[in-house]
Amino acid sequence: MVRVNAPSVVVRRELFGFLSADEGSGVTLLSAPPGSGKTVLLRSWVEDAGLEGNVAWVSVERAEQDPQRFWLSVIGRLREAAGAEIVENLEPSPTFDGDALVDRLISELGALEDVVVLVIDDVHELRSPEVLRQLEALLDRRPSLLRVVIAGRRDPRLGLHRLRIAGQLAEIRGADLRFTLEETRELLAATGVVLSDASVARLQDRTEGWAAGLRLAAIALSGHPDPERFVAEFTGSERTVADYLFAEVLERQPAEARRLLLRTSILERVNGPLADLLTDAAGSLRLLQELEQANAFVVALDASRSWFRYHRLFADLLRLELERTEADMIPQLHRAAAAWYEENRDVVEAVRHAQAAEDWGYAARLVADHSASFALDGRAATLEALLAGFPPNAVSAEPELAVVLARGEVFGGSLADATAYITLAERNAGRVSDERSRGFELSLRLARLMIARRRGDFTSALDEAQPLLAAQESKAGEAAPGKDIRTAAFLQLGIVELWSARFAEAERHLQLGLELARAGGRPYLEAQCLSYLAVTAGRDSMAEAREHAVQAIGIAEQHGWDADRVAGAALVVLGNVDVWQGRFRDAEQWLERARGAVRADLEPGTGLMLQLAQGRLNSANGHYEEAAASYRAAVRLEELVVGPQLMTAPTRRLLAQTQMQLGDLEAARQTLAELSDDEEDGSDIAHAALAHADLAEGDERAAIEALAPVLDGSLPSNPMLLVEAFLVDAIARERLGERRSAESAVERALELAEPNGLIWPFVVTPVRDLLERHPRHGTAHGALLKDILSVISGSPPPSPAGEPAALREDLTDSELRVLRYLPSNLSAPEIGSELYLSVHTVKTHIRHIYAKLGVHRRAEAVERARELGLLASSSPLR
Questions:
Q1: 3-state SS class at 98
Q2: Topology (CATH) of 813-867
Q3: Burial class (CB in 10 A: 0-12, 13-18, 19+), 552
Q4: What are the pLDDT digits (tens) for 417-470?
Q5: How far is the C-alpha of 638 from the C-alpha of 776, rounded, in Å?
Q6: Could you give the CA distance from residue 631 to residue 610 in angstroms, rounded to a whole number?
Q7: What distance in Å separates the CA atoms of residue 836 and residue 467, rounded to the nearest whole number?
Q8: pTM above 0.85, yes or no
Q9: Topology given in CATH for the domain delimited by 13-176
Q10: Which of 210, 212, 218 lies closest to 194, judged by CA?
Q11: Among 70, 636, 840, 856, which is most exposed with the fewest C-beta within 10 angstroms?
Q12: Is the dihedral of CA 52, 54, 60, 61 positive or negative?
């Protein structure tokens, strides 16, 4: 039985009153040395003031360096305290923008109707300058109903002087936390310790009111045979007091309790099974619960009292005693803890304990097996911190670690450093064990594939990709590559095949990646697979391309991510679809967002597609100089690409076509000469480009002859190009007086354009007169013809084709409230004023509404909502 009685919590009314009276300041700093009673004070104040439902309590992890983990914890606690309708959810992702998140939080919390207290405990453990800067911004710009209490062992680097000067900072220091004589007497009485007034005063004086010292003294005095003598002998500084009392407490514990306390002191937190393992005994949970019930220095972390931690001062002293008595056991304890955490899927703690045991090979294998999952879980900073825990010689000795570092450099954009790590891994590949060699080789190939893809070296990327196709099953005795690695491999492979014009293979592998992402619960990879499937779908079905792209953006929005960063390719697809279908204003909005999201130097394929879409949009608006500039930018991007790729022929054809529109036939012919030098361009694209040039030079017969193998099917072609080809054929035949043949060619163009609602080819090709004369009674495509002529004349564009049949996800109550105002003429700020919401919150809700309805304009959202019965067909609110 553990022979210790617990000192009760002393109700410190004066400090409670100070905390409750500081509403005007907004921010309270509680800064005091360890053992001063900071956390106990705050928790007892929260309970006494009845604030449990309004407090968001965040305990900072030890040596916290991960911005995303910290802010996810803040958001989770704020959602509990403020309500999910106020604070949007955010899930981990590899792309994290803490500054944008703080801006969003400030805006959302502006909608608070009651006071919410954000408590950040152990703030001294924040080791990330990025987090400190962002937290400082939150404190400086916090909404009026958000109170913040920050507690730590020392003043954090948060620029608190500005708040102090403005009278917005309340401060509680170590001196304020010292127990008074009356509080000391109350603490001792609560534990049943009987002392004379003189001894109480002596104890108060010797500890200087230090809360931890008094609590340790109370524990030691409980049941002591001669308490007066104990107090008389009790003397010394804070550290020597702690050492003396520690000896008193530990020596009075049963042997099994001492063994448990010492051996589990290597842990940040402990439960029964883990303690059983480290002590090689049973019944640890019972002992921990007794210690927690009896000793203020063992704290339960959950309601079921299954996980515990030790007061940090107490733990430090226990570790010192363990080093003195069982130093040889410490590495073994760390290895055992690492294995237990690995078995229980807490990889971070497993790696930390393997590193503490200096078992670098084990630690490296753990990191290698789970590095992809760290990135996808939004724990890149945690991974960096774990990698920083390896000594330099471990990186050289562990090739699997070098591959992890290479992938990290790829994501960071440093391809030279990534290549250096790959070289190091290849040089030391022989050190990988036989049972891990296949997994290592696949990870190495994936890293090389990523580097090649980022560089635009599609030939090398395809070479690296082939062995990854066989990674679905592992041979007997081999470690199977992780699901996240396989999913990422299919995604990378599909992207490379897409830009290499291997469309069937690209679609198959992206679809496999999508299935794995969904099965593995990886929405980030799901959104990326959908983004690139939207690109492949766009060759045949604009509706399917739009649906995939909207789904990708919707997934990002649903998880609280920046959709522009997660689904940049989807933005380009939506812009491209709107260009083809004649919604040029909408296209500009999508492409503007894409320009801010797509890094062409690291995504040359997506960058090329963006430039082509922008060029088509400029051509449709009659801005031919700007269109030519976009196409030239695309040509320059082609120089980054090695090997077969999708855009070479279309880029030069479009550039030549624009040069013709500018009247520079010589430059157009030179561009076409470059096109015909490519062995693959004796194709439909080359013939169509030459036909445009012939027509521009007045040689209609040559144009018709150039188009013949395209139009009769001798050269395979896609519907988009065929539409243009039939229109050029129609112009040539009209000029030659072959009116019926011209009408037939126009009708054929309309027939091919109808399934996808294509309008752009009719806008950029001079066929307006032909379309206006086209016999209405003789066409099967009257509605499309009407839409085309409306767009050419500058009338509003048609509604999007391919609307989703039903909501992908139900609208929240907050979104429904905002939806009611969309039929009105109110702006976002005015809607916010009506609903007492910030402008940012209103705009966020509107983005979510658009994503869930599958639209991207306000009028479309209203129309779609009415179709679904979410809005009545009555008159608007204003």
A1: helix
A2: Arc Repressor Mutant, subunit A (1.10.10)
A3: buried
A4: 888 989 998 888 888 888 888 888 888 888 888 888 777 777 777 777 767 665
A5: 44
A6: 10
A7: 57
A8: no
A9: Rossmann fold (3.40.50)
A10: 218
A11: 636
A12: positive
